[in-house]
Design goal:
74% of the residues lie in helices and 5% in strands. It is mainly alpha-helical and 112 residues long. It folds into two domains: 31 residues; 80 residues, no CATH class.
């Protein structure tokens, strides 16, 4: 009996996923947006990136209270600065990510 529920949920979730992800591919060409809305939509990826990255950099979760606290000296900030500087100097994405991960590991394990 649980197999019926499992497969019905999987099929329903698959159909919902296909519909929502293919909406703009099927209807998007016929959908005319005003220039004002098109101008606003171009900032959506930047806003989403900021909404994901900024909390990870500046907030740490307290293990005891399970609340987030502002942390100006977190390991992520140092690693981010090292990654940005190394990319600016070398223009190598692989090298800058490697340096950022190395700094994150060092600060997390040895300086905290």
């Amino acid at each position: 009996m649980p197999d019926i529920y499992f497969w019905s949920c999987m099929i329903t979730l698959s159909l919902v996923t296909i519909f929502t992800r293919s909406f703009f591919l099927t209807i998007g060409a016929n959908l005319k947006l005003s220039p004002k809305i098109r101008n606003l939509i171009q900032y959506a990826p930047t806003g989403a990136l900021i909404a994901i990255v900024i909390p990870e950099l500046f907030f740490e979760k307290d293990i005891v209270t399970k609340s987030y606290q502002f942390a100006m000296h977190s390991a992520q900030i140092y690693a981010s600065i090292a990654t940005i500087v190394s990319y600016y100097l070398s223009k190598s994405m692989l090298l800058s990510l490697s340096i950022g991960m190395l700094i994150l590991t060092l600060v997390t394990n040895y300086l905290s």
